[in-house]
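wait is this the right file?? whatever heres the structure
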């Protein structure tokens, strides 16, 4: 019998966006976005081009291994790189891990237009319907209000008692504390998004 492999990161079009797999050509857009101080405020500051190159190598390796890794968000009209948003397999032993998380990072110019929500709704629907996930979680560094607002807009709920300290940072580091949000299959279909 012929085996059909499931594409875990198909090219998807939403109202304003194209969501797709990473390619080498995304380095320029990723470098510009990750070089921006405000975008990187909760990730330890702007990243130098060489660091971003290593980041893209890690993303491509993870995409190859798991089938997806926070997919690219592109403007449907202009094909411009806007950032990334979508599912990622989180293998660490944080609360709720290992499992599938959803995350996002967008170029500063396009914040406040509902783009993270538009992309995330599409990937959550795909995750629950096609990948048959039972739940998806999301992580925000303490104080990242914009990201927490997106989680709430998506119908995700704060998991009280599951706050955790990033194991790579000192407990006193202002970026060390993380909040966890979650959405289940049943909750997602109940949101009407
Ligand atoms: C977090 C981040 C991805 C949010 O992106 P976003 O596209 O602005 O988020 P949303 O989709 O939730 O959009 C919400 C905003 O768009 C507005 N909006 C406009 N049109 C909208 C629409 N059609 N649907 C939903 N919201 C819309 C909302 O009113 C809201 O505005 P506000 O921020 O002034 O309250 C972005 O701020 C970012 O990249 N931050 C830096 C990286 C980061 O910290 N990532 C998170 C790591 S945990």
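ok assuming it is, sequence goes like this
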């Amino acid at each position: 019998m012929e085996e059909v492999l499931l594409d875990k990161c198909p090219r998807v079009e939403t109202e304003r966006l194209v969501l797709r797999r990473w390619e080498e050509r995304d380095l320029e857009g990723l470098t510009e976005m990750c070089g921006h101080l405000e975008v990187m405020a909760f990730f330890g500051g702007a990243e130098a081009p060489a660091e971003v190159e290593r980041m893209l190598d890690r993303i491509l390796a993870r995409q190859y291994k798991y089938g997806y890794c926070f997919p690219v968000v592109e403007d449907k009209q202009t094909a411009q790189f806007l950032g990334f948003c979508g599912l990622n397999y989180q293998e660490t032993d944080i609360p709720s891990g290992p499992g599938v998380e959803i995350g996002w990072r967008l170029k500063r110019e396009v914040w406040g237009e509902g783009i993270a929500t538009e992309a995330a709704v599409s990937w959550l629907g795909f995750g629950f319907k096609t990948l048959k996930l039972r739940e998806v979680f999301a992580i925000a560094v303490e104080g990242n209000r914009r990201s927490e607002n997106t989680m709430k807009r998506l119908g995700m709920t704060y998991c009280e008692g599951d706050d955790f300290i990033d194991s790579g940072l000192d407990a006193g580091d202002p970026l060390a504390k993380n909040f966890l949000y979650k959405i289940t299959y049943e909750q997602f279909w109940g949101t009407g998004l």
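The radius of gyration is 16 Å. so i think its the right one actually
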